[in-house]
Amino acid sequence: MKGIAYVILGACCYGVLSTFVKLAYKDGFIVNDVVGIQMFIGALLLWGIALFGGRKRTSANKYLKPNKKEVLLLTVVGSTTGLTGMFYYLSLQYISASLAIVLLFQFTWMGVLVEALINRKIPEKEKLLSLIPLFIGTLSATNILTTGLSSVHWLGFLYGFLAAVSYTIFVLLSGKVAVQVNPVTKTALMISGGFAICALVLPPTFFMDGKLFIDLALKFGIILAFLGPFLSTLLFSKGVPQIGPGLASILGAMELPTAIVMSTVVLKEHVGAAQYIGILLILAGISLPKLLKRTVS
Protein backbone atom coordinates (compact mmCIF):
# COMPACT_ATOMS: atom_id res chain seq x y z
CA MET A 1 0.00 0.00 0.00
CA LYS A 2 2.90 2.34 0.69
CA GLY A 3 4.26 1.77 -2.81
CA ILE A 4 0.87 2.51 -4.35
CA ALA A 5 0.57 5.70 -2.28
CA TYR A 6 4.07 6.85 -3.34
CA VAL A 7 3.32 6.43 -7.06
CA ILE A 8 -0.13 8.07 -6.91
CA LEU A 9 1.25 11.03 -4.96
CA GLY A 10 4.17 11.37 -7.39
CA ALA A 11 1.80 11.39 -10.38
CA CYS A 12 -0.43 13.99 -8.73
CA CYS A 13 2.61 16.20 -8.09
CA TYR A 14 3.45 16.14 -11.80
CA GLY A 15 -0.17 16.87 -12.65
CA VAL A 16 -0.30 20.21 -10.81
CA LEU A 17 2.82 21.65 -12.50
CA SER A 18 0.99 23.02 -15.55
CA THR A 19 -1.31 25.09 -13.33
CA PHE A 20 1.62 26.80 -11.58
CA VAL A 21 3.27 27.44 -14.95
CA LYS A 22 0.12 29.11 -16.25
CA LEU A 23 -0.01 31.26 -13.10
CA ALA A 24 3.64 32.22 -13.61
CA TYR A 25 2.84 33.35 -17.16
CA LYS A 26 -0.04 35.45 -15.85
CA ASP A 27 2.41 37.13 -13.47
CA GLY A 28 4.58 38.14 -16.42
CA PHE A 29 7.39 35.58 -16.20
CA ILE A 30 8.68 34.17 -19.49
CA VAL A 31 9.11 30.51 -20.41
CA ASN A 32 12.93 30.78 -20.42
CA ASP A 33 12.98 31.64 -16.74
CA VAL A 34 10.09 29.37 -15.66
CA VAL A 35 11.55 26.18 -17.10
CA GLY A 36 15.10 27.26 -16.19
CA ILE A 37 14.35 27.94 -12.52
CA GLN A 38 12.54 24.61 -12.15
CA MET A 39 15.42 22.56 -13.56
CA PHE A 40 18.11 24.60 -11.79
CA ILE A 41 16.62 24.43 -8.29
CA GLY A 42 15.54 20.83 -8.88
CA ALA A 43 19.12 19.87 -9.72
CA LEU A 44 20.42 21.65 -6.60
CA LEU A 45 17.94 19.80 -4.37
CA LEU A 46 18.78 16.43 -5.90
CA TRP A 47 22.54 16.98 -5.69
CA GLY A 48 22.11 18.00 -2.07
CA ILE A 49 20.51 14.61 -1.34
CA ALA A 50 22.94 12.69 -3.56
CA LEU A 51 26.11 14.22 -2.07
CA PHE A 52 25.18 14.71 1.58
CA GLY A 53 22.30 12.32 2.13
CA GLY A 54 24.21 9.36 0.71
CA ARG A 55 27.09 9.34 3.20
CA LYS A 56 25.34 6.90 5.50
CA ARG A 57 24.58 4.41 2.74
CA THR A 58 26.54 1.18 2.81
CA SER A 59 27.64 -1.20 0.09
CA ALA A 60 24.69 -3.40 1.05
CA ASN A 61 22.52 -1.21 -1.16
CA LYS A 62 24.36 -2.68 -4.16
CA TYR A 63 24.55 0.72 -5.86
CA LEU A 64 27.68 1.62 -7.80
CA LYS A 65 29.20 4.99 -8.58
CA PRO A 66 28.73 5.97 -12.23
CA ASN A 67 31.84 5.89 -14.40
CA LYS A 68 32.73 8.65 -16.87
CA LYS A 69 30.84 6.99 -19.71
CA GLU A 70 27.71 6.57 -17.59
CA VAL A 71 27.91 10.18 -16.39
CA LEU A 72 27.97 11.32 -20.02
CA LEU A 73 25.14 8.98 -21.04
CA LEU A 74 22.94 10.01 -18.12
CA THR A 75 23.52 13.68 -18.89
CA VAL A 76 22.58 13.14 -22.55
CA VAL A 77 19.50 11.06 -21.67
CA GLY A 78 18.57 13.69 -19.10
CA SER A 79 18.55 16.35 -21.79
CA THR A 80 15.29 14.79 -23.00
CA THR A 81 13.69 15.67 -19.65
CA GLY A 82 14.69 19.27 -20.24
CA LEU A 83 13.28 19.17 -23.76
CA THR A 84 10.04 17.67 -22.45
CA GLY A 85 9.63 20.45 -19.90
CA MET A 86 10.64 23.09 -22.42
CA PHE A 87 8.20 21.95 -25.13
CA TYR A 88 5.43 21.36 -22.59
CA TYR A 89 5.81 24.81 -21.06
CA LEU A 90 6.02 26.41 -24.51
CA SER A 91 2.74 24.75 -25.45
CA LEU A 92 1.11 26.26 -22.35
CA GLN A 93 1.70 29.71 -23.85
CA TYR A 94 -0.71 28.93 -26.68
CA ILE A 95 -3.18 26.29 -25.49
CA SER A 96 -5.02 25.39 -22.29
CA ALA A 97 -3.42 23.31 -19.56
CA SER A 98 -6.06 20.62 -20.05
CA LEU A 99 -5.23 20.26 -23.75
CA ALA A 100 -1.47 20.40 -23.17
CA ILE A 101 -1.54 17.45 -20.76
CA VAL A 102 -3.63 15.42 -23.20
CA LEU A 103 -1.05 16.02 -25.94
CA LEU A 104 1.78 15.06 -23.59
CA PHE A 105 0.05 11.75 -22.86
CA GLN A 106 0.45 10.74 -26.51
CA PHE A 107 3.75 9.22 -25.37
CA THR A 108 1.69 6.11 -24.58
CA TRP A 109 1.09 5.09 -28.21
CA MET A 110 4.40 6.59 -29.35
CA GLY A 111 6.22 4.24 -27.00
CA VAL A 112 4.37 1.25 -28.46
CA LEU A 113 5.28 2.34 -32.02
CA VAL A 114 8.96 3.01 -31.31
CA GLU A 115 9.32 -0.25 -29.36
CA ALA A 116 7.84 -2.16 -32.31
CA LEU A 117 10.23 -0.48 -34.76
CA ILE A 118 13.28 -1.16 -32.57
CA ASN A 119 12.37 -4.80 -31.97
CA ARG A 120 11.08 -5.26 -35.54
CA LYS A 121 8.11 -7.06 -34.07
CA ILE A 122 4.38 -6.42 -34.17
CA PRO A 123 3.20 -5.22 -30.75
CA GLU A 124 1.24 -7.56 -28.50
CA LYS A 125 -2.51 -7.76 -29.05
CA GLU A 126 -3.19 -6.03 -25.73
CA LYS A 127 -1.08 -3.03 -26.72
CA LEU A 128 -2.71 -2.75 -30.15
CA LEU A 129 -6.18 -2.86 -28.58
CA SER A 130 -5.22 -0.08 -26.19
CA LEU A 131 -4.48 2.24 -29.14
CA ILE A 132 -8.19 2.31 -30.09
CA PRO A 133 -9.47 4.09 -26.94
CA LEU A 134 -6.29 6.20 -26.87
CA PHE A 135 -6.90 7.50 -30.40
CA ILE A 136 -10.64 8.10 -29.94
CA GLY A 137 -10.05 9.60 -26.50
CA THR A 138 -7.46 12.02 -27.84
CA LEU A 139 -9.80 13.27 -30.56
CA SER A 140 -12.54 13.74 -27.99
CA ALA A 141 -10.34 15.30 -25.29
CA THR A 142 -8.84 17.84 -27.67
CA ASN A 143 -12.38 18.80 -28.76
CA ILE A 144 -11.29 18.67 -32.40
CA LEU A 145 -14.36 16.66 -33.40
CA THR A 146 -16.72 19.51 -32.48
CA THR A 147 -14.64 22.66 -33.00
CA GLY A 148 -12.17 21.60 -35.67
CA LEU A 149 -8.42 22.17 -35.86
CA SER A 150 -8.88 25.90 -36.44
CA SER A 151 -9.72 26.38 -32.76
CA VAL A 152 -6.34 24.99 -31.63
CA HIS A 153 -3.23 27.16 -32.01
CA TRP A 154 -0.89 25.22 -34.27
CA LEU A 155 2.23 26.17 -32.29
CA GLY A 156 0.67 24.97 -29.05
CA PHE A 157 -0.32 21.70 -30.71
CA LEU A 158 3.18 21.27 -32.20
CA TYR A 159 4.97 21.96 -28.91
CA GLY A 160 2.64 19.60 -27.06
CA PHE A 161 3.32 16.89 -29.62
CA LEU A 162 7.09 17.45 -29.40
CA ALA A 163 6.86 17.18 -25.60
CA ALA A 164 5.32 13.74 -26.05
CA VAL A 165 8.09 12.74 -28.50
CA SER A 166 10.90 13.80 -26.15
CA TYR A 167 9.21 12.12 -23.18
CA THR A 168 8.89 8.91 -25.21
CA ILE A 169 12.64 8.97 -25.86
CA PHE A 170 13.31 9.56 -22.17
CA VAL A 171 11.11 6.63 -21.08
CA LEU A 172 12.75 4.27 -23.58
CA LEU A 173 16.32 5.24 -22.70
CA SER A 174 16.25 6.00 -18.98
CA GLY A 175 15.50 2.41 -17.97
CA LYS A 176 18.44 1.07 -19.99
CA VAL A 177 21.24 3.40 -18.90
CA ALA A 178 23.25 2.95 -15.69
CA VAL A 179 20.63 0.79 -14.00
CA GLN A 180 23.03 -0.07 -11.15
CA VAL A 181 23.62 3.57 -10.20
CA ASN A 182 21.88 5.04 -7.14
CA PRO A 183 18.50 6.46 -8.29
CA VAL A 184 19.08 9.85 -6.63
CA THR A 185 22.54 10.27 -8.21
CA LYS A 186 21.17 9.06 -11.54
CA THR A 187 18.28 11.52 -11.40
CA ALA A 188 20.56 14.39 -10.34
CA LEU A 189 22.76 13.80 -13.40
CA MET A 190 19.75 13.61 -15.72
CA ILE A 191 18.14 16.77 -14.34
CA SER A 192 21.50 18.53 -14.71
CA GLY A 193 21.54 17.48 -18.37
CA GLY A 194 17.97 18.73 -18.68
CA PHE A 195 18.91 22.11 -17.26
CA ALA A 196 21.92 22.35 -19.61
CA ILE A 197 19.85 21.82 -22.76
CA CYS A 198 17.16 24.25 -21.57
CA ALA A 199 19.78 26.91 -20.81
CA LEU A 200 21.25 26.49 -24.30
CA VAL A 201 17.96 26.64 -26.20
CA LEU A 202 16.09 29.06 -23.92
CA PRO A 203 18.75 31.00 -21.98
CA PRO A 204 17.35 32.10 -18.60
CA THR A 205 17.67 35.77 -17.71
CA PHE A 206 17.48 35.38 -13.92
CA PHE A 207 21.26 34.76 -13.60
CA MET A 208 21.80 38.37 -14.69
CA ASP A 209 19.13 39.79 -12.41
CA GLY A 210 19.27 38.89 -8.72
CA LYS A 211 15.88 40.46 -7.95
CA LEU A 212 14.21 38.47 -10.73
CA PHE A 213 15.84 35.26 -9.48
CA ILE A 214 14.64 35.76 -5.91
CA ASP A 215 11.15 36.88 -6.98
CA LEU A 216 10.70 33.97 -9.40
CA ALA A 217 12.20 31.42 -7.01
CA LEU A 218 10.00 32.44 -4.08
CA LYS A 219 6.78 32.69 -6.11
CA PHE A 220 7.05 29.67 -8.40
CA GLY A 221 10.58 28.25 -8.72
CA ILE A 222 10.78 26.42 -5.41
CA ILE A 223 7.32 24.87 -5.70
CA LEU A 224 7.89 23.82 -9.33
CA ALA A 225 11.30 22.31 -8.54
CA PHE A 226 10.09 20.61 -5.38
CA LEU A 227 6.98 19.04 -6.93
CA GLY A 228 8.60 18.20 -10.28
CA PRO A 229 12.25 17.11 -10.51
CA PHE A 230 12.65 16.56 -6.76
CA LEU A 231 9.62 15.10 -4.95
CA SER A 232 7.92 13.30 -7.86
CA THR A 233 11.16 11.64 -8.92
CA LEU A 234 11.96 10.46 -5.40
CA LEU A 235 8.42 9.16 -4.86
CA PHE A 236 8.54 7.17 -8.09
CA SER A 237 12.02 5.80 -7.34
CA LYS A 238 10.73 4.63 -3.95
CA GLY A 239 7.32 3.35 -5.03
CA VAL A 240 7.96 1.63 -8.37
CA PRO A 241 10.33 -1.06 -6.97
CA GLN A 242 7.64 -1.99 -4.42
CA ILE A 243 4.73 -2.43 -6.85
CA GLY A 244 6.43 -3.07 -10.20
CA PRO A 245 6.49 -1.01 -13.42
CA GLY A 246 3.21 -2.46 -14.74
CA LEU A 247 0.99 -1.24 -11.92
CA ALA A 248 3.08 1.93 -11.64
CA SER A 249 2.33 2.85 -15.26
CA ILE A 250 -1.40 2.52 -14.58
CA LEU A 251 -1.30 4.54 -11.36
CA GLY A 252 0.94 7.14 -13.03
CA ALA A 253 -2.01 8.03 -15.24
CA MET A 254 -3.35 9.96 -12.24
CA GLU A 255 -1.29 12.83 -13.62
CA LEU A 256 -3.89 13.40 -16.33
CA PRO A 257 -7.06 13.86 -14.22
CA THR A 258 -5.07 15.86 -11.66
CA ALA A 259 -4.00 18.34 -14.32
CA ILE A 260 -7.54 18.57 -15.68
CA VAL A 261 -9.07 19.17 -12.24
CA MET A 262 -6.45 21.80 -11.36
CA SER A 263 -6.95 23.65 -14.65
CA THR A 264 -10.73 23.63 -14.09
CA VAL A 265 -10.74 24.65 -10.42
CA VAL A 266 -7.77 27.04 -10.26
CA LEU A 267 -7.47 28.40 -13.81
CA LYS A 268 -11.23 28.28 -14.50
CA GLU A 269 -10.65 26.60 -17.88
CA HIS A 270 -13.77 25.16 -19.46
CA VAL A 271 -13.75 21.37 -19.82
CA GLY A 272 -16.82 19.98 -21.57
CA ALA A 273 -18.46 16.57 -21.45
CA ALA A 274 -16.69 15.41 -24.63
CA GLN A 275 -13.31 16.22 -23.09
CA TYR A 276 -14.12 14.33 -19.88
CA ILE A 277 -15.19 11.31 -21.95
CA GLY A 278 -11.94 11.57 -23.90
CA ILE A 279 -9.90 11.65 -20.70
CA LEU A 280 -11.67 8.52 -19.42
CA LEU A 281 -10.96 6.76 -22.74
CA ILE A 282 -7.27 7.73 -22.54
CA LEU A 283 -7.04 6.36 -18.99
CA ALA A 284 -8.79 3.18 -20.17
CA GLY A 285 -6.34 2.84 -23.05
CA ILE A 286 -3.37 3.24 -20.74
CA SER A 287 -4.72 0.65 -18.29
CA LEU A 288 -6.03 -1.88 -20.83
CA PRO A 289 -2.79 -3.80 -21.62
CA LYS A 290 -2.01 -4.42 -17.95
CA LEU A 291 -5.58 -5.33 -17.07
CA LEU A 292 -5.87 -7.80 -19.98
CA LYS A 293 -2.59 -9.44 -19.01
CA ARG A 294 -3.74 -9.85 -15.43
CA THR A 295 -7.06 -11.33 -16.62
CA VAL A 296 -5.29 -13.84 -18.87
CA SER A 297 -2.80 -14.84 -16.17
| Secondary structure tally: strands | 0
For the sheet with most strands, the description reads: none
Shape: globular
Helix/strand/pairing category: mainly alpha
**Helicity level:** over 70%
Rounded radius of gyration (Å): 19 Å
Residue-averaged pLDDT: 82
**Low-confidence spans:** none
What's the topology here?
Elements: H1 2-15, H2 17-26, H3 31-52, H4 68-91, H5 97-104, H6 107-119, H7 125-141, H8 144-147, H9 154-174, H10 183-201, H11 210-243, H12 245-251, H13 255-265, H14 273-296
Helix pairs in contact: 1-11, 1-13, 2-11, 3-4, 3-10, 3-11, 4-9, 4-10, 5-9, 5-13, 6-9, 7-14, 10-11, 11-12, 12-14
Question: What is the structure about, briefly put?
Answer:
Helices cover 77% and strands 0% of the residues. With 297 residues, the chain is an all-alpha fold.
Question: Would you give an account of this structure?
Answer:
The chain has 297 residues and is mostly helical. The protein has 14 helices and no strands. The chain has helices at 2-15, 17-26, 31-52, 68-91, 97-104, 107-119, 125-141, 144-147, 154-174, 183-201, 210-243, 245-251, 255-265, 273-296. The chain is globular and about 45 Å long.
